[in-house]
Write a structure and sequence with these properties.
Elements: E1 3-8, H1 14-20, E2 30-31, E3 34-35, H2 36-45, E4 50-57, H3 62-71, E5 78-82, H4 87-101, E6 109-112, H5 122-135, E7 137-143, E8 148-154, E9 157-164, E10 170-179, H6 180-193, H7 200-206, E11 212-215, H8 228-238
Parallel strand pairs: 1-4, 1-6, 4-5, 7-11
Antiparallel strand pairs: 2-3, 6-10, 7-10, 8-9
Helix pairs in contact: 6-7
The structure holds cytidine-5'-triphosphate (CTP) and magnesium ion.
Amino acid sequence: MRVFVILPAAGIGTRMTAATGTSTPKQFLSLAGVPVLVHSLRAFLSIPRVEAIYVAVQKREIERVRQQLDEFQLGTRVHVVAGGDVRQQSVWNALEQLASQARCGEDDIVLVHDAARPLIDPATIERTIDAIAEHGAAIVGMPAVDTIKQVDRTSHGAIVTATIPRERIVLAQTPQGARCGLLQRAFSDAVADGFTGTDEASLLERAGIEVAVVAGSPHNFKITQPGDLELAEFYLRSSK
Ligand code: CTP
Ligand code: MG
């Protein structure tokens, strides 16, 4: 059983750039002196059983990212490929490259992790790999701590229509993954049906594949808006 990783890093970070006026996508911004993407890569490179990592970036960034990987001496396990216009397309492109270059077998494991979640800890990655080995597919999820409301959106905001039992809710994080054969099937089904989801689990679920949940952490949040880099730096400092 081999283990592969896909890091989608081809987004343009509109929620961050619109608010800060910078044009650099958030995965390339500096966190404690190192690009966010490099933090994510180091976490997966620290797992010896990870054989290769495929990073999907915008086509025009490929060369620059390759140089950056050299600069940070990230080694030969990292491959840079072209992403697409939406996250699912970026992951699909990387999965196709992985399948043709590394020839992942039906039972090999593929993890997908948002490059914009730099504080993923190696122990959670290990637990996700183990859960996929046991169940076939798994995601990292955080139990909800707030009471969850269902709402109808209105022009002024929203009106509560129901309260959803909190015990039945987890907030999906990454990594998410599955056996290579299952993930390929879920992706090709989605492509065939014209379905676009925002994570891998939504594709696996609709393909009828059972997805297990591994406990996540608030530290594994996704850098999304201004203030998030400062919060990540705070978490980094306090974990030392
Ligand atoms: N991503 C990607 N390809 C895309 C869009 C997103 O690889 N076409 C990646 C992002 O780079 C990020 C992860 O998917 O690592 C999660 O996406 P998100 O947080 O939504 O990032 P962006 O789409 O870049 O940000 P925004 O939605 O604010 O524009
Ligand atoms: Mg997005």
